[in-house]
Amino acid sequence: MKTDLNSLKNQVKEELKKEGGSLGVYRKYLGPKGEITQILRSLKDLPEKERKEKGKLANEIKNEIEKAVESGKYKTRDAKYKTQDAHFDITVPGKKPSLGHLHPLTLARREVEEIFESMGFSVIGGPEMEKEWYNFDALNIPKDHPARDQWDTFYLKNGLLLRTHTSPVQVRYMEKNNPPLRIIVPGPVFRHEATDISHEFELMQVEGLMVDKTVSVANFKAVIDEFFRRFFKKDVKTRLRQDFFPFTEPSFDVSISCVVCGGKGCPTCKKSGWVELAGAGMVHPNVFKNSGLIPKDWQGWAFGFGLERLVMMKYKINDVRLFRSGDLRFLNQF
Ligand code: FA5
Hints:
Layout: H1 2-19, H2 23-30, H3 35-42, H4 48-85, H5 104-118, E1 122-123, E2 129-130, H6 132-135, E3 161-162, H7 168-176, E4 181-190, E5 202-212, H8 217-232, E6 238-245, E7 248-257, E8 274-283, H9 285-290, E9 299-306, H10 307-315, H11 328-331
Parallel strand pairs: 1-4
Antiparallel strand pairs: 2-3, 4-5, 5-9, 6-7, 7-8, 8-9
Helix pairs in contact: 1-4, 2-4
Subcellular location: Cytoplasm
Subunit structure: Tetramer of two alpha and two beta subunits.
Pfam families: Phe_tRNA-synt_N (PF02912), tRNA-synt_2d (PF01409)
């Protein structure tokens, strides 16, 4: 046993010479399962003579390792203090840990929700994986209707599709809730489209729906004017022009006077002074019917806008793809 410990001592010496008092050496011999720790633990079971001899040797090795570890520690500590000493200024403010923050689209979505909630609208969600019935048929877009081409669709293997707009939630909500009702539906939608500076294949839409006994286009104009005024924090003009959507009649596209140039004409608005932000219209009787409501009893308007385009206008952003690029130079500005 004595020879064992002697050769262990030599081995340790060699290692200390090579590595110095490293944490690795310390753990190997003096850690909870270290060789020396175990030997020291087993001493109590040995006859006295052997215990004394072995104990002495084991403790010598232990001390040697501890000494090497300690001196190694001080060496690095000293070196550290020496280089810092000359420049150490305790008055320099500490480095602020950088915190994450919300994505600009999340911030905008919350702002939109707050404005509409203050006008009595409820915020509603709906499934992103949708049935063809709700995304198309119930919205008066039967199979083979050419209007389906307007929304290039990702079809899934499970027979569902990724919703191409938030309009299906109109039907889902009216099936379960009786008018009068006022809702907005913010959420992601997906389109099988090539991307460019104003088109993404995933975008955030905000659907709006108001249904009551007597609801008119004038109502819609008042609500949307108030919304734009509060979102852009300035007076913006709104323009409705005739458009076509199978689920509204009449339908219109909603443009606002360009916030960048004030309507004078600039590259952002392609010199027209107007920027198109939403599709809208009066709810088509077939949509009421498909939602289980009696069409002649109700009137309603609906709209759907792209949140990206709204935020782009507000902050003069010239490429929609920046939102999902993960580029911190862009994101850190919000
Ligand atoms: C629709 O999706 C209709 N559901 C809107 C609607 C709702 C009409 C209710 C009537 C009643 P459209 O495909 O035009 O319509 O899209 C609406 C808005 O989404 C557009 O005005 C635009 O702001 C935004 N948008 C559409 N496609 C993209 C895209 N690829 N990238 C970014 N924004 C887009």
